[in-house]
C-alpha cells in the first residue's frame, strides 16, 4: 500500500533514499520522498537502479556521521560509472557550521547539499542539480512552520504514521547538537495537526506517533498556549483513529497532570518515553537537564501509581565528561529503582560547538565501553522480568499485517 504516493509514474526517473537517525529524520525522508514523487520520480530499492540517490544524515553522535560519510564514499564508484546520477546529501550533518562546504570540497561526486531548513525547496534544488549544477543550499535560519504545511509524504506502508507536532528545540542540554542544527522550537497549529491526522485516518492509518524533541513544551510558542494535553484530548475524538503515541517527553516539563489526563483518554497508549540520561545529580546539572534524580524517580512513581501497567522507557548516556565511578553507580541505581521496560543506551560523543565538548575530564573510550556493557547487564534482566510479568495476560493489540 502506498497510501500517500502522489503522481506515481512508472516511466519517470527513479530515486533511492538512505536515512540515518531518529524518527523525525525518518519522517523528513518520507516528506522528501513525497515531494520527489510529486515531481514524477518513483522509488527504487537500490542505488544502482536510481537516477537520484538522496542520503538524509544525522549528527547526534560521531558514529552516525561516520556511517553517513562511509555511505557517501561508497557511492563514488557508482557515480564514476554513471556520471548522470545525481547524489544529494541532506539533513542534520550538513547543517553544522561549514560542513556543507567541506563536504562539497572533499567529495567532488556530491551534486547537492541540502540543510534541514531547506527541505521545502527540494524540488527546485533537485531540478537544478539534475540540470548539471552543483548546489549548496544550507540556510542558517529556521524554516517557518507554514512552509512545511501541506507538503506531500510518501509514508512507509502500514497502519502507523508519524506526525510532527514541533520542530527544533529550545533546550540547551550541554552535550546536544540538535538545537544547533534544527533551530528553536516551532509548534504546529493544533488545527493543522488535527487536519493531518484526520486525513491519515481517511487513507487507512490507525495509529499516529506525535513527534517532537520535547513534546511537553508543545504549544508554548503558539497564541493561547495550547498544551500537549489539549492536543491529545482533541485527537482522542478523531473517529476511526485507534491509537495515539507521542515522543519524546522531557522530565523537566512533564507534569503529573498530564498522566491523569492521559489516563482518561482511551486512544492514547500507556507508554512514556522519558529520557533520564543519567542518575547522578552532579552529572545531570552539568548536562543542564533541569531536573534531579529525585524529581525523575517521583515522575516514574506517579506514572506507575496512576497507570500500573504503563510502559516506561528511557535514554541513558555513559561517559559524560567528569563522570566518575560513583556517578555511574548512581545511574545503575536509578535504573534499578525505575525498572524501565526498555532503555536506549549511548556512549557520550563530544559534538562540535556544544559546551560539554570543551569540559575537562573527558572519559577514555575503554571506560565508556565498559560502563555501557555494565549498564546493559543491569537493564536487560529488568526488561525481561517486565515482559515476563505480562505472560498470560490479555492485552489489546493492533494488527499491522501478516508477519514476514
Ligand atoms: N529530545 C530528546 C533526545 C533527542 S537525541 C530528549 O531530550 O530526550 C536522542 C538521544 O541521543 C538523547 O536522549 C541522548 O540520550 C542521546 N544523545 C544526544 N546527544 C548525544 C551525544 N552527544 N552523545 C551521546 N548520546 C547523545
Ligand atoms: Fe537535545 Fe536536550 Fe533538546 Fe533533547 S531536549 S533535543 S537532548 S537539547
**Structural classification:** alpha/beta
**Rg calculated over all Cα atoms:** 22 Å
Reading off the top of the CATH hierarchy, the class of the largest domain is best stated as Alpha Beta
- How confident overall, as mean pLDDT? 95
CATH fold topology of the largest domain: pyruvate-formate lyase- activating enzyme
Order of helices and strands: EHEEHEHHEHEHEEHEHEHEHEHHEHEH
The quaternary organization reads as single chain
Percent helix = 25-40%
What CATH architecture of the largest domain do you see? Alpha-Beta Horseshoe
What profile does the largest beta sheet have? Answer: 6 strands, parallel
Q: Your description of this structure?
A:
The protein is an alpha/beta fold. It has 2 domains: 14-137, Rossmann fold (3-Layer(aba) Sandwich), CATH 3.40.50.12160; 150-388, tm_1862 like domain (pyruvate-formate lyase- activating enzyme), CATH 3.80.30.20. It has 14 helices and 14 strands. The strands form 4 sheets. It has a 6-stranded parallel β-sheet, sandwiched between helices. A 3-stranded parallel β-sheet has the order 7-10-11, sandwiched between helices. The radius of gyration is 22 Å and the shape is globular. The relative contact order is 0.09. The mean pLDDT is 95. Bound molecules: S-adenosyl-L-homocysteine and iron/sulfur cluster (SF4). Residues 60-61, 175-176, 178, 213-214, 248, 250, 275, 277, 315, 317, 346, 348-349, 351 line the site of S-adenosyl-L-homocysteine (SAH).
Amino acid at each position: 500500500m502506498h497510501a500517500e504516493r502522489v503522481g506515481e509514474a512508472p516511466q519517470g526517473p527513479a530515486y533511492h533514499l538512505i536515512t540515518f537517525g531518529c524518527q523525525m529524520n525518518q519522517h523528513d525522508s518520507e516528506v522528501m520522498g513525497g515531494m520527489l514523487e510529486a515531481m514524477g520520480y518513483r522509488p527504487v530499492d537500490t542505488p544502482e537502479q536510481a537516477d537520484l540517490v538522496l542520503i538524509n544524515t544525522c549528527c547526534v553522535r560521531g558514529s552516525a556521521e561516520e556511517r553517513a560519510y562511509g555511505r557517501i564514499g561508497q557511492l563514488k564508484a557508482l557515480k564514476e560509472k554513471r556520471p548522470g546520477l545525481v547524489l544529494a546529501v541532506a539533513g542534520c550533518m550538513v547543517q553544522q557550521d561549514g560542513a556543507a562546504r567541506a563536504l562539497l570540497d572533499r567529495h567532488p561526486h556530491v551534486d547537492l547539499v541540502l540543510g534541514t531548513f531547506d527541505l521545502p525547496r527540494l524540488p527546485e534544488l533537485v531540478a537544478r542539480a539534475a540540470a548539471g549544477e552543483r548546489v549548496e543550499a544550507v540556510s542558517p535560519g529556521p524554516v517557518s512552520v507554514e512552509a512545511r504545511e501541506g507538503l506531500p509524504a510518501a509514508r512507509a506502508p502500514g497502519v502507523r504514521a508519524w506526525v510532527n507536532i514541533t520542530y527544533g528545540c529550545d533546550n540547551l542540554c550541554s552535550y546536544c547538537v540538535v538545537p544547533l542544527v534544527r533551530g528553536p522550537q516551532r509548534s504546529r497549529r493544533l488545527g493543522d495537526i488535527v487536519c493531518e491526522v484526520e486525513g491519515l485516518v481517511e487513507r487507512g492509518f490507525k495509529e499516529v506517533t506525535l513527534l517532537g524533541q520535547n513534546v511537553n513544551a508543545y504549544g508554548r510558542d503558539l497564541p493561547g498556549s495550547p498544551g500537549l494535553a489539549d492536543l491529545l484530548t482533541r485527537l482522542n475524538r478523531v473517529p476511526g483513529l485507534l491509537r495515539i503515541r507521542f515522543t519524546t517527553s522531557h522530565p523537566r516539563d512533564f507534569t503529573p497532570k498530564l498522566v491523569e489526563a492521559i489516563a482518561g483518554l482511551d486512544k492514547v497508549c500507556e507508554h512514556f518515553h522519558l529520557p533520564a540520561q543519567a542518575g547522578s545529580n552532579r552529572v545531570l546539572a552539568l548536562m543542564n537537564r533541569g531536573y534531579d534524580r529525585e524529581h525523575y524517580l517521583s515522575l516514574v512513581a506517579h506514572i506507575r501509581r496512576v497507570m500500573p501497567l504503563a510502559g516506561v522507557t528511557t535514554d541513558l548516556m555513559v561517559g559524560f565528561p567528569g563522570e566518575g565511578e560513583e556517578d555511574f553507580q548512581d545511574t545503575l541505581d536509578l535504573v534499578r529503582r525505575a525498572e524501565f521496560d526498555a532503555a536506549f543506551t549511548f556512549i557520550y560523543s563530544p559534538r562540535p560547538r556544544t559546551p560539554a565538548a570543551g569540559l575537562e575530564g573527558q572519559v577514555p573510550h575503554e571506560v565508556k565501553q565498559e560502563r555501557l556493557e555494565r549498564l546493559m547487564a543491569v537493564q536487560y534482566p529488568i526488561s525481561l522480568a517486565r515482559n515476563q510479568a505480562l505472560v498470560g495476560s490479555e492485552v489489546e493489540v493492533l494488527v499491522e499485517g501478516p508477519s514476514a
